[in-house]
Amino acid sequence: MAIERELKLALPGDLPAARADALISHLDRLPGAEARGERRLVNRYFDTPSLALASAKAALRLRFVARDAHAGQWLQTLKSVGEARDGLHVRHEWEQAVQGEALELPKLIAACDVPATAELLRAEGANVVAQFETNFVRRLWRYIAGDGTAVEIAFDRGEVAVDAGGKRHTAPLVEVELELLDTPDNDREGQGERVLHALAQNLRDVLPELHSDNVSKAQRGYRLRQDVLGH
């Protein structure tokens, strides 16, 4: 099991291209940051018809990651109960490669070491169906702070989508995610979070439109689903 610690910053869905380019240029020049290229991500989220996973504050995702000159890869991810405060999301996460465009739930259940979450997936896994998608282009940088703290910076631009009644309903998705990858000395003093917040402030100085966001991509999908289906 991994504990994901990520600071999420949202941007307006109608962000002008020039403003996005300004952020990208700043990150390309940021001392300590190394550009890692682009990925195209197709993300399908699953739940039961009664939304049992959402009720338990869990999210189940099948993701396809593609990048130029590399074969794409399918991944399944389970995220369980966490907390979000001032844009900082802390939660359990299990991610595994899968053979193709299908969940491999027995493998995920075996890896999940939070008993309540594993039991939920064991009980409800046979009933899950695709509920919505979040699809976007992700531009990546790896940032190393002066103390050695490592952060992945992701700039995502795309959409949330729900298919219903033969129609595709979408909402824009524009976000920056700062994910804590590694910290010296097991981060006993909480320096990792301070690095995340300092980096976020650095980005806000360039793009004041950035604001802390406690809403995950999965939550955005469920909200659009509610708007479209009414339940």
From TrEMBL:
Coiled coil, from the record: none
InterPro entries: CYTH-like_dom_sf (IPR033469), CYTH_domain (IPR023577), YgiF (IPR039013)
Superkingdom classification of source: Bacteria
Domain CYTH span(s) in chain numbering: 2-228
Name of the protein in question: CYTH domain-containing protein
Gene Ontology molecular function terms on file: inorganic triphosphate phosphatase activity; metal ion binding
Pfam family of the protein (one): CYTH
